[in-house]
Specification:
- It is a single chain.
- The protein has 553 residues and is α+β, with helices and mostly antiparallel strands.
- The chain folds into five domains: 82 residues; 84 residues, Immunoglobulins (Immunoglobulin-like); 86 residues, Sandwich (Immunoglobulin-like), CATH 2.60.40; 134 residues, Alpha-Beta Plaits, CATH 3.30.70; 67 residues, Tumor Necrosis Factor Receptor, subunit A, domain 2 (Ribbon).
- The strands form twelve sheets. Strands 2, 5, 6, 8, 9, 10 and 13 form a seven-stranded mixed β-sheet that branches. Strands 11, 14, 15, 17, 18 and 19 form a six-stranded mixed β-sheet that branches. Strands 22-25-26-21-24-23 form a six-stranded mixed β-sheet.
- β5 and β6 form a beta hairpin.
- It is elongated, with a radius of gyration of 49 Å.
Length: 553
């Protein structure tokens, strides 16, 4: 066998019969790997290896083993399993496709081999179900179709993937974030900001427009071409509506208009509350000076913005020998500075100066009216036995609140009110069922019984058709078998016994129920008598046929 193998077999990669047989079995095993015949090849390999490794065998054993080997390799004679080949992609999809929303786009691939492959498509890592063609067609493209596509060609041997195709579906801008109403006090250096975001492919460009509150014209805002606009240190000329436009080559869209309220401001007032306790002395003692002149000299009438207010005298507990004098050293609204045209820094400095002024006047009085000092007052000699002072403020008008820095008063914004002089000076939200569309108000307006609002509302909202105004001024949907065709109602209407309505309905259906008496939606369904007779005849005919067959047997 070794001589035949070496001289006549044509096998050049091996040296002996044993070596060549082992080599060919290894090659056969490698060739059949991942194929249907692989398990049979493994059995053949193990049988032959066991046989040739025997030390000796009889002629009968050799003959029997040879027949067994021939039987085991018979599957190779009539099967082409080892001749199958993996698919080869001959046409890949285009590497990049740009489609437009609403239009059609297609992908195609081709593959050959034996046997012919089947096709499927993978989109962003997931196999698309129900698509088994070498062509993929999307009839109505939209943004969700953007991604990576791959063609799969498969046969009994294996599956192979094409090169991937990146699809981008372009579309006109869609506003995803509208600018929101806001308010800011006049001259605030931090400014107001509006943001407008749009989803688009390719990315959108932006343009902002301004409409004054009492105008119908929209003005082009020069140089504002981003999705955000900022209005720094705003003045009253910038009070109004702001709208953004997003656009690309496929279309344009306008955002909702957002209102910027520029809130009016004023200078706050501060006061130094003074209390002087006096004891009536013997008139024989000599006073230092007049009490009235001493106070007047400190609180000069030459300064119109600092006044002595709310002056009162009393005898504590009715004791005539004791006198209590109270008054306020108060800074009134500054007339020497125009808060609207002045910078925030100038206004703040002016307020600081006024605070320091009234504080200093209190300190001066305390030094002059120290305990034990004698003063003449209304023909009597009074001794100072107590002196107290306390700074109070900021004091704002009853329609404004004190800014956090304490140096300006600001109108209460729409949706809120103040209406008192209590400190601290803060605004309150309009309660549920009330609203206020204007700034700087002392009360909110009540919505009528057909209107709904949330806390802090600027307008009253009508409950839409199909709903009604329930408890806590909240819109609630009409219940099952009720309806409401009109806006702004306080109750829903009940359908009559021959009609029905779903939750939130604006009308009652005119479809008859199953009987002349009202039934719930979950009750018996209406029976069609014609369909019932047809069904009964079919069942009867079936039983007649079945009986006839049994009789024949």
């Amino acid at each position: 066998m070794d001589t035949y193998t070496y001289n006549s077999s044509g096998l050049t990669d091996c040296q002996s019969f044993y070596d060549c047989l082992t080599t060919e079995l290894i090659a056969l095993r490698y060739l059949s790997e991942d194929r249907e015949s692989y398990e049979d090849v493994v059995v053949l390999d193990e049988f032959v290896s066991t046989f040739i490794n025997r030390n000796s065998s009889s002629a009968d054993d050799a003959e029997t083993s040879a027949i067994t080997v021939l039987d085991q390799v018979a599957f190779l004679k009539d099967s082409n399993d080892v001749c199958l080949e993996a698919p080869i992609i001959t046409q890949h999809p285009e590497p990049k496709i740009i489609a437009v929303e609403g239009e059609v786009f297609s992908l195609a691939c081709q593959a050959t081999e034996n046997p012919s492959p089947t096709f499927s498509w993978v989109f962003n890592g997931q196999i698309l179900k129900g698509i088994n063609s070498n062509t993929l067609t999307i009839k109505q493209a939209n943004a969700s179709h953007s991604g990576t596509y791959t063609c799969l060609a498969s046969n009994e041997v294996t599956s192979v993937s094409s090169l991937h195709c990146d699809v981008t579906v372009e579309f006109a801008p869609i506003i995803s974030e509208h600018p929101q109403d806001t308010e800011i006090e006049h001259g605030n250096i931090e400014g107001a900001y509006f943001t407008c975001e749009a989803s688009a492919q390719p990315l959108a460009d932006y343009q902002w427009y301004f409409q004054k509150s009492l105008s119908i014209d929209m003005e082009f805002i020069q140089g504002q071409n981003s999705s955000t606009i900022e209005i720094l240190s705003p003045d009253f000329t910038q009070d109004g509506w702001y709208t953004c436009e997003a656009w690309n080559e496929h279309g344009r869209v306008l955002s909702n208009a957002a209102r910027l309220h520029i809130l009016n401001i004023s200078m706050p007032e501060y006061s130094n509350n003074i209390t002087i306790d006096l004891y009536r002395e013997d008139s024989s003692k000599s006073p230092n000076a007049s009490l009235e002149d001493t106070i007047t000299n400190v609180i000069s009438n030459d300064d119109p913005e600092v006044k002595c207010l709310n002056y009162q005298e009393s005898n504590p507990q009715g004791k005539t020998f004791l006198t209590k004098i109270t008054f306020e050293i108060k800074s009134t609204a500054a007339s020497s500075i125009d808060i609207v045209t002045s910078s925030r820094q100038d206004s703040a400095q002016r307020v600081k100066d006024k605070i320091d002024d009234i504080h200093d006047k209190g300190v001066q009085l305390q030094k002059l009216l120290s305990q034990g000092e004698l003063f003449e007052h209304q023909g009597e000699v009074l001794e100072v036995i107590g002196f107290n002072s306390g700074l109070n403020g900021p004091i704002c008008p009853n329609h404004q609140y004190a800014h956090v820095d304490g140096y300006i008063c600001v109108n209460c914004p729409p949706g809120s009110y103040r209406g008192n002089y209590n400190l601290p000076a803060v605004c309150q939200q309009c309660p549920v069922g009330f609203y206020q569309p204007k700034e700087g108000q002392t009360e909110c307006l009540k919505c009528d019984g057909y209107i709904n609002t949330d806390a802090g509302s600027r307008i009253c909202l009508n409950c839409p058709p199909g709903s009604y105004r329930g408890k806590d001024a909240v819109c609630e949907q009409c219940a099952h078998e009720f309806y409401q065709p009109e806006r702004g109602q306080t109750e829903c209407l009940k359908c009559d016994g021959y009609t029905e309505a779903d939750i939130g309905s604006t009308i009652c259906s005119d479809i008859p129920l199953s009987s002349s008496t009202p039934q719930s939606k979950g009750g018996p369904e209406e029976v069609n008598i014609v369909e019932f007779i047809e069904y009964t005849l079919i069942i009867l005919f079936y039983h007649i046929l079945l009986f006839g067959k049994l009789f024949d047997r």
